[in-house]
């Protein structure tokens, strides 16, 4: 698969996109029915309540039992039809409202990250006994998407517009590739357009791609022995891991500039005086194209074999997850950019500014002006160095996303500062901005057939006529126990 750099092939496509620009004099027909932004604003208490509950739960991938239950409960109360346990994943679900017309999907994530936690304090404050935290803001992702889906449902109902709004509850984005199994099961085949969003330290609807990636747990087996009394009898599984890591680190010198590889040793033995007979290392490989991932991956597998051979151990590995890169759709991205600018960014109260200033002190040189949370970044196209299973969805149906300032400007994802803001009112405000932009986008898609057609035309051209979907995790079943 090759990620195609898209462009507008015809004057008609250019004209259509420009017609949705905020600079166009006749940008859009007068909106029927209630104001979508006001529908979202009316749900602010729900957004805050659900976001906080998910933040408190902090459930990791495929174990989001309470989180998915809460989302489904809220949707069922609003009249959505719920299909739980889809694609062989107990915590995944689809909720739908409406009849006929186009199908617009909104994605909702819910999983937390293991090994990091924090209170909602602006200074480092780990919570004793808590082993995970929403360091990527998926509690906000789930709550904001829920709000948008309910707002769109109410707009469809009050205007009598034909169409179906779907919320996809998507577990285990963090290394579990929940959406890949959902895509592989054909759950997006009848979707006209998919919409997603993510927390960030800035507001942007730029057309940003992502890196393809694959991960695996490499497991070495050796022979245990007394490390002092009978060292010659031992074959250290940890030696195998360390030999592999040494070769992998040398491989870093010979990788493309925009590729990434990182690892953690998840098991290395329990006592220094026992030669460990088992050790495990968990690797990620990323590159802009699937072919790049696979080329590096072949060399990584050879490093594992070499490590085992040189240390007299054995090795096998289990692919845990794999994501295709995001297929950008600029027809949709430019419209989303216009919707985000219509909504605007995040404005802090005096109390929130004081809280954010304290977080700023911990960011050092990474800190950005607080007022940038109220700005929308310029539109453009770029390569993002993260990876997401939304990438696979984007190869199944035209997909568009938005990022909003849920964290203090300068905050990195996967940090304690991100956990804190994701549990704070600043995070909720960012989720509301995202919900408003997504709701406006969905309403536009329901009412503008030419926009849907143009997005599909760009999508078809980018994939190519001979495209066949292939996941980077093969035919394995969902790794429901990968976080246990």
UniProtKB/TrEMBL annotation:
GO terms for biological process: folic acid catabolic process. GO terms for cellular component: cytoplasm. Keywords: Hydrolase, Signal. Gene3D superfamilies: 3.30.70.360, Zn peptidases. GO terms for molecular function: dipeptidase activity; para-aminobenzoyl-glutamate hydrolase activity. Pfam families: M20_dimer, Peptidase_M20. Transmembrane segments: none annotated. It comes from the Bacteria. Residues 215-304 form the Peptidase M20 dimerisation domain. InterPro entries: Amidohydrolase, Aminobenzoyl-glu_utiliz_pB, Bact_exopeptidase_dim_dom, Peptidase_M20, Peptidase_M20/M20A_hydrolases, Peptidase_M20_dimer. Residues 1-27 form the signal peptide. The keyword ATP-binding does not apply. This is Amidohydrolase. It comes from Erythrobacter litoralis.
